[in-house]
Design a protein that fits this description.
- The chain is an alpha/beta fold and 397 residues long.
- The protein folds into three domains: 146 residues, SSO1389-like (Rossmann fold), CATH 3.40.50; 87 residues; 141 residues.
- Helices cover 56% and strands 11% of the residues.
- Strands 3-2-8-7-6-1-4-5 form an eight-stranded mixed beta sheet, sandwiched between helices.
- α7 runs antiparallel to α8 and α10 packs antiparallel against α11.
- The longest helix is centred in the middle third of the chain and has 25 residues.
- The protein starts with a strand and ends in a 10-residue tail after the last helix.
- 30% of the residues are buried.
């Protein structure tokens, strides 16, 4: 583990630094931290003047010390010089602690951001952030403040952003569990992650069943979260959204509407391919709804519904149908809504096929084009829902 610290040109006076029950008398906070945490290396960022004033004394006080020269921040370019100095002092997989006691003006802010960057690009790990509060003595001694709450706040930042923008829950679970929570506060976020995994894999019936399950536990979670997890309060509305997709025990209009709401959520979170896949299955569900089918998840019935809409498409294009005529055709051929469903089927199939098979096609549309077409198609699906009415409530298929 490394200790990263800054040295200025101040007149550092001897004081008794204390951290927990440990008390160390020294001029230099770096010596106190070295003796407390026993890092394998100390890296000190110093200006030329700071090194002249304190360099030799620090060499005597510290073991395994390395000095890194930095400029006095006077212009915008100096920020990037500081960035490079810090980032180049960190190796892949490094663990380190940061001391900001003598960092100049905006350097603590910059250095903290650089270390967060190092965590991502070098898989390094910040083990702690510390500050020697010389100006706030306690019983004549100088406390060393631990500022690790800043680290947990960054995890909240990542987790909340992932949930709000991308519909992912891993970061939120990590942020919550870093708070050493127990019971429902620990278990419920895992349920959130589970339901979002179902959504990412486009397992929509499972997603909707989980929505009903987390709906039951949400009031208790919200009550405890407001009390014990303040950073989560602004994002509770995003979590509550996930409790509103429950349904689809039976294939009714409410079920079809909930599936449309899932598509909306997927498009909002950038899951366009998933939304298109669900649009295709929604059309199959619409046909089964017209027929009054109870077994809407039965593979054979879904295949018959797919063949039915394909039969209508072939007839409309005056293309030959060389297979057995689907059994649902005669029941549905007089239904006006079938014209809309046929058009939807062709539109969805065309868009979906353009991105299926990992894009192994000669001509692939641009992402923006696909997204626009998907949104337009969703509008058509909403319109189709209003025209859906079962052919016969007595029909059993």
């Amino acid at each position: 583990m490394k200790l990263l610290s800054f040295v200025g040109t101040g007149e550092y006076k001897e004081t008794s630094y204390f951290y927990g029950d440990t008390v160390i008398k020294t001029r230099y906070i770096q010596e106190a931290l070295m003796r407390i945490f026993k890092p394998s290396e100390v890296v000190l960022f110093v200006t030329e003047d700071a090194y002249k004033k304190h360099g030799e004394h620090l060499k005597e006080a510290l073991k395994h010390v390395k000095f890194v020269s930095i400029p006095i921040p006077k212009k915008q370019e100096d920020i990037w010089v500081l960035f490079e100095a810090i980032i180049n002092s960190i190796e892949d997989e490094d663990e380190f602690i940061l001391d900001i006691t003598h960092a100049f003006r905006h350097i603590p802010f910059i250095s903290f951001l650089v270390l967060l960057y190092a965590q991502e690009v070098k898989n390094a790990k910040i083990k702690g952030v510390y500050y020697g509060a010389f100006e706030a003595p306690t019983d004549g001694k100088t406390p060393i403040f631990e500022l690790n709450g800043l680290l947990s706040l960054t995890e909240w930042l990542y987790g909340i952003r992932e949930l709000r923008i991308y519909g992912r829950g891993e970061g939120l679970v990590k942020a919550i569990q870093q708070g050493n929570v127990t019971g429902h506060l620990k278990q419920y976020p895992e349920q959130i992650n589970k339901i979002l995994k179902y959504l990412q894999l486009n397992q929509i019936p499972s997603f909707m069943r989980e929505s009903k399950r987390i709906k039951q536990g949400y009031p208790s979670f919200k009550k405890q979260a407001v009390k014990h997890l303040p950073p989560i309060v602004p994002v509770l509305s995003e979590i509550e959204r996930l409790t509103k997709f429950d349904g689809c025990t039976n294939l009714d209009k409410d079920c079809l509407q909930k599936q449309i709401e899932v598509m909306e959520y997927q498009l909002e979170k950038g899951m366009t391919a998933n939304a298109l896949e669900l649009m295709r299955e929604w059309i199959v569900n619409a046909i089964l709804y017209l027929l009054g089918s109870d077994g809407w998840l039965d593979r054979d019935r879904r295949k018959e519904a797919e063949d039915t809409v394909n039969w209508f498409c072939a007839k409309m294009k005056k293309e030959p149908w060389n297979r057995k005529k689907p059994s649902y055709v005669d029941v549905l051929k007089e239904e006006p809504v079938m014209q809309r469903l046929i058009k939807l089927w062709e539109d969805v199939t065309k868009i979906r096929n353009s991105i299926a098979h990992a894009g192994m096609n000669k001509n692939n549309p641009k992402p923006g084009t696909i997204e626009k077409k998907a949104k337009r198609t969703l509008e058509e699906i909403r319109n189709a829902l209003e025209e859906l009415h079962p052919v016969s409530s007595l029909l059993i298929i």
